[in-house]
Target: MmpS family membrane protein
Amino acid sequence: MTYQPPPSGPQGYYPPPQYPPRRSRPLWPWVLGVVALVVVALVGGGVVLLGAFAVRTTKEARHEVSVVYEVTGSAAAADIAYYHGQFDNAVVSGGALPWRKEVLIVGLATPAGVSASGAAGETMSCRILRDGKVLASESSSGPTAYVNCFLPFVLG
Model:
């Protein structure tokens, strides 16, 4: 007697076809696409932020602030120097005291300042005001009467 395998199913039954194994798709195109999307998003966001900053800075560069300089003292006159405009300065030789000048400061980081010197032994003082509020003040007396009121920049 010879061995015969058991029947594999009903007569005429064929086993399901064997498909070739599925090839796995490479992962690197997806990773590359995500990295490219992130780079584009970061660059686009940076451009938007830079544009907004440039617009704001341009507006601030044209910003104008009105300040008042005052110099007082016991002397009849003093030599006075002050900032005005945009980094411009002016000198008043022998200006009568009390001295007062309203100036327009233009720009984002423009300084405001006034300094004065008088005769030895006199007293002097200076002030910088904006809207009636004192922003800086200084007084001096003695052998060298010199005062300097300075603000590195005036914010509006």
Notes: The longest helix spans residues 28-61. The chain has a mean pLDDT of 84. The two ends are 112 Å apart (CA to CA).
